[in-house]
């Protein structure tokens, strides 16, 4: 994963296998706290994130890049400045047979 | 700055939707602009307390989540639907909006089957706050812990957990509190509902507060009048002098005081 602060933005496309809120609970404390905060903010730029976390820039970037790589965040370059946004879905697709779902349509 | 308040219970049947409708309406009676979002997509029902049925709303939360309408389009001003025991509209100085979930089986199934973008639900909450100029957004959730519940916990300024004086509720509430702490919820309040009148008030409140280390904002005793109303309206408007109604207003005033 490349570092957005060094001019090479991470892949803005959503990683496959988006994460759910349940996955969020399994993160280590620092990562979970950051994603929680980004959920409330609905995204934030790097400068605001560093100001919030009070963690040094390189360490914050490393954490953000890990969270992008694992699918919890996306890096949205369409915003100015670019922002990190949560990338969570309500649930993973259920494995109930189609026949059962179709009966409810 | 609007306050987002999520109302949870670990188990069903705690009276969560009933208390949500009563407290939200009581907050609105202080001149506040309030919205209730029914995120209990699997088993929606809070609209019944406002006398609405499926034919009364064109759009629902489901439509918003499928990008068929804006969040505001799915919000209905139900202030005039809050009626007194005589059937006349109550004199509420504020406004109550309701965003219902769909009651159509196919639409419930579609949400369960396909899920939705959590960010979209979060955006919808904020759109409602901005476009309806809200003071409070109440999120009525599905009982237990699921993805929607976790989201509403995560984005709330305050979480209200409703429990009965029941061992299963006590155990479940401990789990919910642990999750709320993991999701960094700033403020948590417990409401004890459906308490049998054999329990002295102070004893029960002390027991719950000691067990969880979280304040009890209100204690509501079981009563026949509630059973008789049978979700046929907002209780405190039908029985304004009842002890239950007085407790509803105490909780409403606490929420307003916490904001200021």
What would you say this structure looks like, in words?
The complex is a heterodimer of chains A (105) and B (260). Chain A has a single domain (13-88), classed as Arc Repressor Mutant, subunit A (Orthogonal Bundle). In chain A, strands 1-4 form a two-stranded parallel sheet. Helix content of chain A is 43%, strand content 11%. Chain A is an alpha+beta fold. The model of chain A is unreliable at 1-16 (pLDDT under 50). Chain A is built from 5 helices and 4 strands; from the N terminus they run βααααβββα. Chain B has 260 residues and is of the alpha/beta class. Chain B has one domain (3-152, 183-188, 215-259): Rossmann fold (3-Layer(aba) Sandwich). Chain B is built from 10 helices and 8 strands. Chain B starts with a strand and ends with a helix. The A-B interface holds A 20-22, 24-25, 32-33, 36-37, 39-40, 42, 85-94, 96, 101, 104-105 and B 105-106, 108-110, 112-119, 121-123, 126, 146-148, 150-151, 154-155, 179, 182-184.
Number of domains of chain B: 1
Number of domains of chain A: 1
Q: Which regions of chain B have little confidence, pLDDT < 50, spanning 5+ residues?
A: none
The CATH superfamily of chain A is identified as Winged helix-like DNA-binding domain superfamily/Winged helix DNA-binding domain
> What share of the residues of chain B does DSSP label as strand, in percent?
15-25%
The profile of the biggest β sheet of chain B is: 8 strands, mixed
Shape of chain A: elongated
Amino-to-carboxy terminus distance of chain A? 43 Å
* CATH architectural designation of chain A: Orthogonal Bundle
Given as residue ranges, the uncertain stretches of chain A (5+ residues, pLDDT < 50) are 1-16
Structural class of chain A: alpha+beta
């Amino acid at each position: 994963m490349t570092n957005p602060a060094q001019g090479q933005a991470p892949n803005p496309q959503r990683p496959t296998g988006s994460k759910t809120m349940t996955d969020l609970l399994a993160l280590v404390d620092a990562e979970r706290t950051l994603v929680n905060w980004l959920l409330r903010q609905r995204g934030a730029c790097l400068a605001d994130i560093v100001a919030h976390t009070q963690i040094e820039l390189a360490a914050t970037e490393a954490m953000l890049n890990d969270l992008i790589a694992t699918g919890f965040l996306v890096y949205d370059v369409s915003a100015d400045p670019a922002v990190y946004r949560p990338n969570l879905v309500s649930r993973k697709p259920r494995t109930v047979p189609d026949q059962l779902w179709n009966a409810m349509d | 700055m609007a306050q987002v308040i999520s109302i949870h219970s670990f188990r069903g049947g705690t009276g969560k939707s009933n208390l949500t409708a009563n407290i939200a309406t009581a907050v609105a009676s202080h001149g506040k602009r309030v919205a209730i979002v029914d995120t209990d997509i699997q088993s929606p029902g809070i609209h019944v307390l406002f006398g609405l049925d499926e034919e009364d709303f064109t759009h629902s939360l489901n439509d918003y989540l499928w990008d068929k309408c804006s969040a505001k389009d799915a919000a209905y001003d139900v202030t005039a639907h809050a009626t007194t025991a005589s059937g006349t509209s109550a004199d509420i100085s504020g406004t109550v909006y309701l965003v219902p979930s769909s009651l159509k089986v196919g639409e419930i199934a579609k949400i369960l089957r396909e899920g939705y973008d959590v960010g979209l639900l979060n955006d919808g909450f904020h759109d409602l706050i901005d476009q309806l100029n809200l003071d409070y957004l109440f999120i009525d959730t599905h009982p237990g812990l699921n993805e929607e519940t976790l989201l509403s916990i995560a984005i709330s300024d305050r979480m209200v957990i409703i429990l009965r004086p029941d061992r299963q509720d006590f155990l479940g509430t401990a789990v919910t509190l642990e999750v709320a702490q993991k999701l960094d919820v700033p403020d948590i309040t417990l409401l004890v509902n459906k308490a049998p009148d054999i329990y002295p008030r102070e004893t029960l409140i002390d027991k719950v507060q000691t067990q969880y280390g979280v304040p009890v904002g209100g204690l509501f005793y079981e009563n026949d009048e509630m059973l008789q109303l049978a979700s046929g309206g907002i209780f405190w408007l039908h029985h304004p002098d009842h002890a239950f109604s007085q407790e509803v207003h105490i909780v409403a005033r606490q929420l307003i005081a916490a904001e200021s």
